[in-house]
Amino acid sequence: MTGKKTINARYGRKENLLADFTRNGPRGVLFIETGRRLELAEQVLVVIEFPADKRSFRLHGKVIARRRSSRESLPPGTHVEFPADENHTLQLVLDCVEGKEIDFIDRRGKRMSCSFVVSYRSDEDFVREFAEDIGEGGTFIRTENIFAVGTEVECRLKPPGYLMGLKLKGRVAWVKKTGRPKGMGVEFIFQSGRQRKKVREVVEKLVSEQTRQVKEKMKEIREADRFR
Protein backbone atom coordinates (compact mmCIF):
# COMPACT_ATOMS: atom_id res chain seq x y z
CA MET A 1 0.00 0.00 0.00
CA THR A 2 1.19 3.49 -0.82
CA GLY A 3 -0.13 5.25 2.31
CA LYS A 4 -0.87 8.35 0.24
CA LYS A 5 -4.32 9.81 -0.29
CA THR A 6 -5.83 8.85 -3.62
CA ILE A 7 -7.53 11.38 -5.90
CA ASN A 8 -9.66 10.13 -8.76
CA ALA A 9 -9.84 12.21 -11.93
CA ARG A 10 -12.46 10.86 -14.35
CA TYR A 11 -12.84 12.25 -17.86
CA GLY A 12 -15.88 11.34 -19.94
CA ARG A 13 -14.21 13.18 -22.79
CA LYS A 14 -10.46 12.71 -22.89
CA GLU A 15 -9.76 16.14 -24.36
CA ASN A 16 -11.17 17.77 -21.22
CA LEU A 17 -7.94 16.84 -19.46
CA LEU A 18 -5.97 19.21 -21.68
CA ALA A 19 -7.95 22.18 -20.38
CA ASP A 20 -6.78 21.38 -16.84
CA PHE A 21 -3.19 20.48 -17.67
CA THR A 22 -0.18 22.82 -17.74
CA ARG A 23 3.60 22.53 -17.69
CA ASN A 24 5.86 23.86 -14.95
CA GLY A 25 9.31 23.37 -16.44
CA PRO A 26 9.99 19.62 -16.60
CA ARG A 27 7.00 18.94 -14.34
CA GLY A 28 3.37 18.56 -15.27
CA VAL A 29 0.55 20.16 -13.29
CA LEU A 30 -3.06 18.98 -13.35
CA PHE A 31 -6.06 20.71 -11.83
CA ILE A 32 -8.51 18.16 -10.41
CA GLU A 33 -12.02 19.00 -9.32
CA THR A 34 -12.47 17.76 -5.78
CA GLY A 35 -14.01 18.93 -2.55
CA ARG A 36 -11.54 16.95 -0.45
CA ARG A 37 -9.42 18.86 2.00
CA LEU A 38 -5.77 18.35 1.11
CA GLU A 39 -2.75 20.06 2.58
CA LEU A 40 -0.22 22.00 0.54
CA ALA A 41 2.85 19.89 -0.30
CA GLU A 42 0.91 16.73 0.60
CA GLN A 43 1.96 13.67 -1.41
CA VAL A 44 -0.95 12.07 -3.27
CA LEU A 45 -1.70 9.30 -5.74
CA VAL A 46 -3.72 10.47 -8.73
CA VAL A 47 -5.76 7.91 -10.67
CA ILE A 48 -6.67 9.31 -14.09
CA GLU A 49 -9.56 7.41 -15.66
CA PHE A 50 -11.00 7.39 -19.18
CA PRO A 51 -14.15 5.25 -18.74
CA ALA A 52 -15.01 5.20 -22.44
CA ASP A 53 -11.66 3.56 -23.24
CA LYS A 54 -11.58 1.50 -20.03
CA ARG A 55 -8.14 2.96 -19.33
CA SER A 56 -6.64 4.29 -16.13
CA PHE A 57 -3.25 5.71 -15.17
CA ARG A 58 -1.64 6.10 -11.74
CA LEU A 59 0.73 8.97 -11.04
CA HIS A 60 2.39 10.18 -7.85
CA GLY A 61 2.47 13.91 -7.20
CA LYS A 62 2.10 16.62 -4.60
CA VAL A 63 -0.46 19.33 -3.93
CA ILE A 64 0.85 22.79 -4.88
CA ALA A 65 -2.36 24.85 -4.80
CA ARG A 66 -6.02 24.65 -3.79
CA ARG A 67 -9.14 26.42 -4.99
CA ARG A 68 -12.40 26.82 -3.15
CA SER A 69 -15.70 27.35 -4.96
CA SER A 70 -16.05 30.97 -6.04
CA ARG A 71 -18.69 33.52 -6.92
CA GLU A 72 -17.91 32.90 -10.58
CA SER A 73 -19.16 29.32 -10.06
CA LEU A 74 -15.67 27.86 -10.52
CA PRO A 75 -15.61 24.37 -9.00
CA PRO A 76 -13.38 23.62 -6.02
CA GLY A 77 -10.29 21.57 -6.63
CA THR A 78 -6.57 21.15 -6.22
CA HIS A 79 -3.50 21.54 -8.40
CA VAL A 80 -1.21 18.50 -8.33
CA GLU A 81 2.35 18.69 -9.61
CA PHE A 82 3.99 15.55 -11.00
CA PRO A 83 7.78 15.14 -10.69
CA ALA A 84 10.00 14.61 -13.73
CA ASP A 85 10.32 10.86 -13.05
CA GLU A 86 6.59 10.52 -13.80
CA ASN A 87 7.04 12.00 -17.29
CA HIS A 88 6.89 8.59 -18.97
CA THR A 89 3.46 7.78 -17.55
CA LEU A 90 2.34 11.36 -18.07
CA GLN A 91 3.31 11.15 -21.74
CA LEU A 92 1.27 7.96 -22.06
CA VAL A 93 -1.72 9.88 -20.68
CA LEU A 94 -1.24 12.69 -23.20
CA ASP A 95 -0.75 10.23 -26.05
CA CYS A 96 -3.98 8.51 -25.05
CA VAL A 97 -5.81 11.84 -25.03
CA GLU A 98 -4.49 12.64 -28.50
CA GLY A 99 -5.67 9.29 -29.82
CA LYS A 100 -2.20 7.90 -30.51
CA GLU A 101 -1.79 4.14 -30.65
CA ILE A 102 -0.25 2.96 -27.39
CA ASP A 103 0.97 -0.51 -26.53
CA PHE A 104 -0.35 -1.51 -23.11
CA ILE A 105 -0.05 -4.54 -20.89
CA ASP A 106 -3.54 -5.74 -19.98
CA ARG A 107 -3.68 -5.35 -16.19
CA ARG A 108 -7.26 -6.40 -15.61
CA GLY A 109 -6.09 -9.57 -13.84
CA LYS A 110 -4.64 -9.67 -10.36
CA ARG A 111 -1.20 -8.16 -10.06
CA MET A 112 0.99 -8.92 -7.09
CA SER A 113 3.99 -7.01 -5.82
CA CYS A 114 6.88 -9.35 -5.17
CA SER A 115 10.60 -9.73 -5.65
CA PHE A 116 12.26 -12.68 -7.29
CA VAL A 117 15.12 -13.45 -9.59
CA VAL A 118 14.28 -13.43 -13.27
CA SER A 119 16.48 -14.36 -16.20
CA TYR A 120 15.67 -13.05 -19.64
CA ARG A 121 17.28 -13.49 -23.02
CA SER A 122 17.44 -11.29 -26.08
CA ASP A 123 19.94 -11.64 -28.90
CA GLU A 124 21.37 -14.72 -27.13
CA ASP A 125 22.38 -12.64 -24.14
CA PHE A 126 21.21 -13.92 -20.74
CA VAL A 127 21.14 -11.67 -17.71
CA ARG A 128 19.61 -11.94 -14.24
CA GLU A 129 17.56 -9.15 -12.76
CA PHE A 130 14.78 -8.68 -10.25
CA ALA A 131 11.10 -8.62 -11.14
CA GLU A 132 9.19 -6.05 -9.11
CA ASP A 133 5.72 -7.42 -9.71
CA ILE A 134 4.01 -10.13 -11.65
CA GLY A 135 0.49 -10.53 -13.00
CA GLU A 136 -1.27 -12.93 -15.32
CA GLY A 137 -0.49 -10.64 -18.24
CA GLY A 138 3.11 -9.67 -17.61
CA THR A 139 5.82 -8.52 -15.24
CA PHE A 140 7.88 -5.42 -14.52
CA ILE A 141 11.63 -6.04 -14.45
CA ARG A 142 13.90 -3.66 -12.55
CA THR A 143 17.00 -3.27 -14.70
CA GLU A 144 19.45 -0.78 -16.18
CA ASN A 145 19.71 -2.95 -19.31
CA ILE A 146 16.56 -1.77 -21.05
CA PHE A 147 15.51 -3.17 -24.43
CA ALA A 148 13.50 -1.32 -27.04
CA VAL A 149 9.69 -1.59 -27.03
CA GLY A 150 8.67 -4.53 -29.19
CA THR A 151 11.78 -6.63 -28.44
CA GLU A 152 10.91 -10.30 -27.97
CA VAL A 153 12.48 -11.89 -24.90
CA GLU A 154 12.57 -15.26 -23.20
CA CYS A 155 11.86 -15.02 -19.47
CA ARG A 156 12.74 -17.53 -16.79
CA LEU A 157 10.85 -16.65 -13.65
CA LYS A 158 11.60 -18.26 -10.31
CA PRO A 159 9.18 -17.05 -7.61
CA PRO A 160 9.59 -18.14 -3.98
CA GLY A 161 8.67 -21.79 -3.47
CA TYR A 162 9.25 -22.83 -7.08
CA LEU A 163 12.24 -25.12 -7.56
CA MET A 164 12.27 -25.16 -11.36
CA GLY A 165 10.68 -21.82 -12.14
CA LEU A 166 8.72 -20.87 -15.25
CA LYS A 167 9.96 -20.38 -18.78
CA LEU A 168 7.93 -17.91 -20.84
CA LYS A 169 8.19 -15.92 -24.02
CA GLY A 170 7.47 -12.23 -23.76
CA ARG A 171 7.63 -8.89 -25.48
CA VAL A 172 8.74 -5.50 -24.10
CA ALA A 173 5.52 -3.47 -23.98
CA TRP A 174 6.80 -0.31 -22.26
CA VAL A 175 9.94 1.03 -20.63
CA LYS A 176 10.84 3.35 -17.76
CA LYS A 177 14.23 4.97 -18.33
CA THR A 178 14.01 7.71 -15.69
CA GLY A 179 13.37 7.77 -11.96
CA ARG A 180 13.56 4.77 -9.66
CA PRO A 181 13.15 1.99 -10.32
CA LYS A 182 14.20 1.92 -13.96
CA GLY A 183 13.07 -1.05 -15.95
CA MET A 184 10.71 -2.46 -18.52
CA GLY A 185 7.25 -3.94 -18.64
CA VAL A 186 7.22 -7.35 -20.31
CA GLU A 187 3.97 -8.77 -21.69
CA PHE A 188 3.80 -12.56 -21.62
CA ILE A 189 3.17 -14.43 -24.86
CA PHE A 190 1.49 -17.67 -23.82
CA GLN A 191 2.09 -20.79 -25.88
CA SER A 192 -0.87 -22.67 -24.41
CA GLY A 193 -3.77 -22.43 -22.01
CA ARG A 194 -1.82 -24.63 -19.63
CA GLN A 195 1.01 -22.10 -19.50
CA ARG A 196 -1.43 -19.27 -18.78
CA LYS A 197 -2.99 -21.37 -16.01
CA LYS A 198 0.45 -21.95 -14.47
CA VAL A 199 1.14 -18.21 -14.28
CA ARG A 200 -2.32 -17.69 -12.74
CA GLU A 201 -1.46 -20.28 -10.09
CA VAL A 202 1.81 -18.46 -9.32
CA VAL A 203 -0.01 -15.15 -8.85
CA GLU A 204 -2.72 -16.73 -6.68
CA LYS A 205 -0.05 -18.41 -4.52
CA LEU A 206 1.75 -15.09 -4.03
CA VAL A 207 -1.53 -13.34 -3.13
CA SER A 208 -2.42 -16.11 -0.68
CA GLU A 209 1.02 -16.01 0.95
CA GLN A 210 0.98 -12.26 1.43
CA THR A 211 -2.56 -12.39 2.82
CA ARG A 212 -1.45 -15.04 5.30
CA GLN A 213 1.53 -12.94 6.38
CA VAL A 214 -0.64 -9.86 6.87
CA LYS A 215 -3.14 -11.83 8.99
CA GLU A 216 -0.35 -13.27 11.14
CA LYS A 217 1.14 -9.81 11.64
CA MET A 218 -2.25 -8.36 12.65
CA LYS A 219 -2.74 -11.27 15.07
CA GLU A 220 0.65 -10.58 16.67
CA ILE A 221 -0.24 -6.90 17.05
CA ARG A 222 -3.60 -7.70 18.67
CA GLU A 223 -2.01 -10.19 21.08
CA ALA A 224 0.71 -7.69 22.01
CA ASP A 225 -1.95 -5.04 22.73
CA ARG A 226 -3.78 -7.44 25.07
CA PHE A 227 -0.78 -7.68 27.40
CA ARG A 228 0.03 -3.98 27.57
CATH topology of the largest domain: Thrombin, subunit H
Task: Kindly name the structural category.
Answer: alpha+beta
Q: Main beta sheet, described?
A: 6 strands, mixed
Total of DSSP H or I helical runs spanning 4+ residues: 3
Element-by-element helix/strand order: EHEEEEEHEEEEEEH
CATH superfamily of the largest domain: predicted glycosyltransferase like domains
Strand order of the largest sheet: 1-4-5-6-3-2
Helix content: 10-25%
Beta-strand proportion = 35-45%
How many individual β-strands?
12
CATH class of the largest domain: Mainly Beta
Low-pLDDT stretches = none
Form type = globular
- Estimate nothing, just give the exact number of structural domains: 2
**What is the terminal-to-terminal distance?**
28 Å
The whole-number mean of residue pLDDT values reads 80
What value does the Rg take, in angstroms? 21 Å
CATH architecture of the largest domain: Beta Barrel
